[in-house]
């Protein structure tokens, strides 16, 4: 396939163009500890790319790094400490500061809160939302936690075996999930009230190999609504209105 950023094919860029493009897109990784160099102090981790891309004059470099750290809830005296001296939530703040130091337009958040405690998750999610508003950022937020997805996302894409099965606005998808896989995912969301019972949809069978997916609809081997056509024919994308799209033979 293609990777397009602002209409440009990323894989078609020259080395110089790609270098310039890197400042516009950044990533926050799932595990903050393994994505931070244990041999560099925090100030150097955050500022390394700023220096490499000459984003600010040398005289302003230290103040710039301090400002980024302050925006992400870190103190200036943290600059000289190393990643192992911080908690998981603080390490993720360092990762966020490193990503935002280049002043990007687009940030990939690859399960940025799944390795954190629930109370810390809330702090990091609120920080991400605050920074998004302040810096006018676009996030591609990857997560298995649907309550987090609902809180942070404007648009949702549900993926199964490497392909999108349903896309739409957050309100539409949560109010009216159309694909059987989306319905199964929503049925697995834990309910905070022990007296409330949800009709849990248990998916039977094993996930097929993404390298050798089944013929027809990829989900048909585990779908309780499977029809004969699902086993042989790949479903087309159907627009159900308001930008809510689904790839399923139920809506032919």
What does this entry look like structurally?
This protein has 252 residues and is α/β, with parallel strands linked by helices. The chain folds into two domains: 4-153, Rossmann fold (3-Layer(aba) Sandwich); 157-251, no CATH class. The protein contains eight helices and nine strands. The strands form three sheets. A four-stranded antiparallel sheet has the order 6-7-9-8. A three-stranded parallel sheet has the order 3-4-5, with helices on one face. Strands 1-2 form a two-stranded antiparallel ribbon. The radius of gyration is 21 Å and the shape is globular. The two termini are 26 Å apart. The mean pLDDT is 93.
Widest beta sheet: strand line-up? 6-7-9-8
- What is the helical fraction, as a range of percent? 25-40%
The radius of gyration is 21 Å
Q: Using the 3D structure, state the CATH architecture of the largest domain.
A: 3-Layer(aba) Sandwich
Largest sheet: 4 strands, antiparallel
Q: Can you count the beta strands?
A: 9
Structural class by SSE content: alpha/beta
Classify the oligomer: single chain
CATH topology of the largest domain: Rossmann fold
The H/E string reads EEHEHHHEHEHEEHHEE
Determine the number of helices (DSSP H or I, runs of at least 4 residues).
8
Please state the average pLDDT score.
93
Shape type: globular
* Beta-strand share of residues: 5-15%
CATH superfamily of the largest domain: P-loop containing nucleotide triphosphate hydrolases
Structural domains: how many: 2
CATH class of the largest domain: Alpha Beta
**Unreliable spans:** none
Distance between the termini: 26 Å
């Amino acid at each position: 396939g293609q990777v397009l950023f602002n209409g440009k094919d990323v894989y078609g860029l020259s080395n110089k163009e790609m270098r310039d493009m890197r400042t516009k897109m950044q990533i926050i990784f799932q595990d903050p500890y393994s994505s931070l160099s244990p041999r560099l102090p925090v100030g150097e981790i955050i500022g390394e790319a700023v220096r490499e891309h000459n984003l600010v004059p040398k005289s302003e470099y230290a103040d710039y790094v301090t400002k980024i750290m302050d925006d992400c809830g870190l103190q200036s005296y943290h600059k000289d400490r190393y990643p192992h001296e911080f908690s998981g939530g603080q390490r993720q703040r360092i990762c966020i500061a490193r990503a935002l130091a280049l002043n990007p337009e687009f940030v990939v958040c690859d399960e940025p809160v799944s390795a954190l405690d629930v109370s810390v998750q809330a702090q990091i999610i609120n920080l991400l939302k605050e920074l998004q508003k302040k810096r006018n950022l676009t996030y591609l937020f990857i997560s298995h936690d649907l309550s987090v997805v609902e809180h942070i996302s404007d648009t949702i894409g549900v993926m199964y075996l490497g392909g999108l099965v349903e896309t739409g606005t957050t309100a539409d998808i949560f109010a009216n999930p159309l694909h059987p896989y989306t319905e199964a995912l929503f049925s697995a969301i834990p309910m905070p009230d022990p007296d409330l019972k949800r009709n849990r949809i248990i998916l039977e069978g094993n996930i097929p190999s993404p390298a050798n997916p089944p013929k027809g609809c990829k989900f048909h081997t585990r779908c309780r609504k499977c029809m004969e056509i699902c086993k042989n024919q790949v479903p087309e994308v159907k627009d159900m209105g308001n930008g809510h799209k689904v790839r399923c033979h139920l809506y032919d």
